[in-house]
Amino acid sequence: MKKPIVIDTPEALAKGLRSLLRRDPRLRPINRTAGKWAERGIAAGDSGLLRRQPGFASLLRIIIEQQVSVASANAVWRRLEDQVKLVPEDMLKADDETLRGVGLSRQKARYARALATEIAEGRLDLGALKHMSEEDATTELVKVKGIGRWTAEIYLMFVLGRPDVWPAGDIALQSSVRDLFDLKDRPKEKEMDILSEPWRPWRSVAARLFWHSYEVVRARS
Predict the structure, then answer these.
(1) pTM
(2) Residue 96: helix, strand or coil by DSSP?
(3) Got the DSSP string for 25-61?
(4) Which pLDDT tens digit goes with each residue over 113-148?
(5) Which listed residue (125, 170, 179, 182) is catalytic?
(6) Residue 6's pLDDT is what?
(7) Element (H or E) spanning 145, and its range?
């Protein structure tokens, strides 16, 4: 049985990038725009490696990162770590005052408790996800209140190291794809999926390349 690909080493990331550039030469300009994104990303801890431990805390952190800046999410996370032991049982014991005090909105506090409840009561087994397909794992995750497709896909990419996840609804990703293909508007999810077909089975690497290029272009402008 063929061993599944997992992006958990610099070598795996480099292999994916080489394959992408060979399969689709249209990606070479964006790779040049991003510079040595893989090497810099690895050094900065933003490489697409298996850099977060699977489990409740990593999924909770992605929920906290929804629709806020990286700086804001990191600040909330640091305060939460100081106040609450990041396991489901302790999250369920944390009162509203504590969660508001660290910067969690009422909505995200509800999401945090919903996730903790699903795990504590045995309805969500995060350990079982590694044996599932991307689609099955996503379906399992989105059953939890507060977890949409984007959150599930980010967990698969950045925690489980899945190589072929494509968060087609991500606005920054759509913007970068629009720029590469010189499109008038940001492509919708269906068009994003069609455009990404040549990049299988390394779409997680392609997504990181586009994200890094987006950040570089935005910084320059």
Answers:
(1) 0.90
(2) helix
(3) GGGHHHHHHH-SHHHHHHHHT-SSSS-S-SSHHHHHH
(4) 999 999 999 999 999 999 999 999 999 999 999 999
(5) 170
(6) 87
(7) none
What is the model's pLDDT at position 47?
47
**Alpha helices in the chain, H assignment, sequence order:** 10-23, 28-34, 37-44, 56-64, 70-83, 88-93, 96-101, 106-120, 134-141, 149-158, 171-181, 189-196, 203-220
**What is the spatial distance between Cα 141 and Cα 153, in angstroms, rounded to a whole number?**
9
Interatomic CA distance for residues 148 and 43, integer angstroms: 30
Angle, CA 172 vertex, CA 170 and CA 173 arms, to 5°: 65
Q: Tell the residue number behind the tokens 């190589």, with chain if given.
A: 163
Cα(23)–Cα(17) distance, integer angstroms: 10
Mean pLDDT of successive 10-residue stretches along the chain, which has 221 residues = 76 87 92 68 52 91 92 95 96 96 96 98 96 95 97 95 95 94 96 96 93 83 72
What burial class does residue 115 get, using C-beta atoms within 10 Å of its C-beta: 0-12 exposed, 13-18 middle, 19+ buried?
buried
Q: Per the omega criterion (within 30 degrees of 0), is the bond before 187 cis?
A: no
- Alpha carbon of residue 184 to chain centroid: 27
Nearest Cα residue to 41 out of 199, 204, 192, 170: 204
125 classed as catalytic: no
Domains and CATH numbers, the chain: 10-49+165-220 (1.10.1670), 56-158 (1.10.340.30)
